[in-house]
């Protein structure tokens, strides 16, 4: 009788697969990544290691002693006191309490302070409150504490912002006008992020986390890269982490460039180069999860993309491994068996510098 | 909420339970890759790199150096005070400590 191992689908549902089926899905996922990104295959040894990780007969797995890596965080303390919209668990507390719980109760290596809306633009009207929160947290904590939020270029378009929505313009075949709108929004976002972080640095922040760079397309990434460049110039010692929104930079504009490179269509190993060039210290590659495929297929694909990014990057890579990225199932409370297997695979096969 | 804890348990360096915060600071402050950052911190602490995630080894070292421990030890350096000791240990500047010094000058 053939042995079957409990594993997961990309949506988190439990399924059973043989070693041969796991290997076949790993290879298929890997092939999808190598084909899309024009990047190298994993070796036979690496594929065998991934099969072993997935088929380990334990609920939870862990990296070998000595291979541990620092863990950085997005959303920050909002996961403690926030609502379900931020995957928060709704425990009434303060952000200071949230940071201290992560440092002293959970053993977090780093932490992040963020605004409940978790986008940069809405921070502007409440900047003094954010500075006050950062000051109190910095006085009471030891681990590196960043200020984090999403560049979220979407907030700069109508009806939320001053620039006409490029989606509406494109529907009317006003392509040039749509591009002008994206460029204007990007300039405002760069200005806002730089201003907010100038304030936060004056309140003792260790640095900044750009979370979901490129979520609103290449304009979003363009704005983020220019903000990173400006902050590095103004604050040579600032800690800067830039985590992506997706594996592929969407070309809503199509012609935006950074350092002579077109941003639209960039894969993680190409994103790493421009993020580093802009002046970030840590790059966060993202590979999205396909809910209709197995965890093995998704992990083979994600590890292949991330391994290429780690190799191409000149700065540390902290792979994004939240719900629905990095080989983690797309489910709000992802199962510990799936999370721990993906986590171990990224460290021991993709060679990430952190998570 | 369980997901970040699962990552910390699977792959993390345990923060101030061990030396995770110190390695993270070198990745951030000098853009060191993981191997270089671990070597740098291990050399400063006079331990091996495997010890950096070992709570048994790091507990006493952290308490002796005054760089913060996970439990609430009365009278031990915490917050800014612990970070000032980390600055000296790692040979780096920490923004919140710089701000603190400017305010008391």
Offer a concise description of the structure.
The complex is a heterodimer of chains A (355) and B (105). With 355 residues, chain A is an alpha/beta fold.
What does this structure look like?
Chain A is α/β, with parallel strands linked by helices. In chain A, helix 8 links the parallel strand 5 and strand 6. In chain A, the strands form three sheets. A five-stranded parallel beta sheet of chain A has the order 3-4-5-6-9. Chain A is globular, with a radius of gyration of 20 Å. Chain A has helices spanning 19-37, 44-55, 78-81, 95-104, 127-140, 166-171, 175-202, 218-234, 268-278, 295-312, 336-350; strands at 5-8, 14-17, 111-113, 145-149, 207-213, 239-244, 257-258, 261-262, 282-284. Chain B is mainly α. In chain B, helix 2 crosses helix 3. The longest helix of chain B is centred in the middle third of the chain and has 12 residues, at 34-45. Chain B is globular and about 45 Å long. The mean pLDDT of chain B is 96.
Topology overview:
The complex is a heterodimer of chains A (355) and B (105).
Chain A: E1 5-8, E2 14-17, H1 19-37, H2 44-55, H3 78-81, H4 95-104, E3 111-113, H5 127-140, E4 145-149, H6 166-171, H7 175-202, E5 207-213, H8 218-234, E6 239-244, E7 257-258, E8 261-262, H9 268-278, E9 282-284, H10 295-312, H11 336-350
Parallel strand pairs in A: 3-4, 4-5, 5-6, 6-9
Antiparallel strand pairs in A: 1-2, 7-8
Helix pairs in contact in A: 1-2, 1-10, 2-11, 4-5, 5-7, 7-8, 8-9, 9-10, 10-11
Chain B: H1 2-11, H2 20-30, H3 34-45, H4 55-65, H5 79-90, H6 95-104
Helix pairs in contact in B: 2-3
Quickly list its features.
heterodimer, A: 355 residues, alpha/beta, 11 helices, 9 strands, globular, B: 105 residues, mainly alpha, 6 helices, 0% strand
Helix content of chain B: 55-70%
- Tell me the series of helices and strands of chain B, N- to C-terminal: HHHHHH
Strand content of chain B: under 5%
Shape of chain B: globular
| Mean pLDDT figure of chain A | 97
For the largest sheet of chain A, list the strands in their spatial order: 3-4-5-6-9
Instruction: Report the uncertain regions of chain A.
Output: none
């Amino acid at each position: 009788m053939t042995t079957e191992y409990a594993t997961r689908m990309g949506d988190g549902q439990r399924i059973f697969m043989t070693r041969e089926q796991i290997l076949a899905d790993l290879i298929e996922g890997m092939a999808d990544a190598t084909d899309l990104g024009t990047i190298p295959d994993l070796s036979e040894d690496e594929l065998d290691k991934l099969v072993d990780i997935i088929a380990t007969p334990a609920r939870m797995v862990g990296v070998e002693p000595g291979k541990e890596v620092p863990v950085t965080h997005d959303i920050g303390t909002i996961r403690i006191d926030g609502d379900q919209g931020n995957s928060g668990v709704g425990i009434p507390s303060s952000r200071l309490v949230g940071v201290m719980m992560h440092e002293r109760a959970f053993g977090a290596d780093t932490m992040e302070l963020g605004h409940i809306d978790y986008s940069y633009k809405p921070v502007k009207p409440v900047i003094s409150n954010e500075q006050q929160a950062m000051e109190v947290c910095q006085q009471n904590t030891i681990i590196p504490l960043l200020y984090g939020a999403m560049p979220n270029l979407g907030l700069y378009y109508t009806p939320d912002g001053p620039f006409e929505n490029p989606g509406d313009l494109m529907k009317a075949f006003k392509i040039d006008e749509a591009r002008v709108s994206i460029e204007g929004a990007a300039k405002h976002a760069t200005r806002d992020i730089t201003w907010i972080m100038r304030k936060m640095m004056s309140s003792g922040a260790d640095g900044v986390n750009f979370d979901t760079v490129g979520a609103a397309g290449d304009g979003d990434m363009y704005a983020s890269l220019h903000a990173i460049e400006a902050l590095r110039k103004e604050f040579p010692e600032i800690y800067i982490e830039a985590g992506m929104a997706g594996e592929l930079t969407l070309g809503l504009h199509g012609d935006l460039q950074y350092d002579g490179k077109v941003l639209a269509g960039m894969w993680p190993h190409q994103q790493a180069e421009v993020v580093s060039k802009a002046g970030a210290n840590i790059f966060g590659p993202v590979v999205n999860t396909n809910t209709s495929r197995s965890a093995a297929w998704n992990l083979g694909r994600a590890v292949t993309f991330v391994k290429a990014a780690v190799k191409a990057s000149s700065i540390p890579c902290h792979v994004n491994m939240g719900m629905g990225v990095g080989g983690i199932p797309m489910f709000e409370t992802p199962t510990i068996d799936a999370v721990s297997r993906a986590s171990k695979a990224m460290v021991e096969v993709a060679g990430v510098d952190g998570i | 909420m369980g997901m970040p804890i699962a990552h910390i348990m699977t792959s993390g360096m345990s923060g101030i339970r061990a030396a995770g915060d110190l390695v993270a600071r070198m990745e951030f402050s000098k853009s060191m890759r993981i191997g270089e950052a671990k070597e740098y911190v291990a050399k400063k602490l006079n331990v091996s790199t495997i010890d950096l995630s070992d709570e048994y080894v790091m507990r006493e070292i952290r308490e002796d150096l005054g760089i913060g421990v996970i439990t609430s030890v009365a009278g031990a350096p915490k917050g800014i005070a612990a970070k000032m000791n980390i600055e000296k240990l790692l040979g780096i500047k920490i923004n919140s400590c710089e701000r603190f010094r400017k305010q008391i000058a």
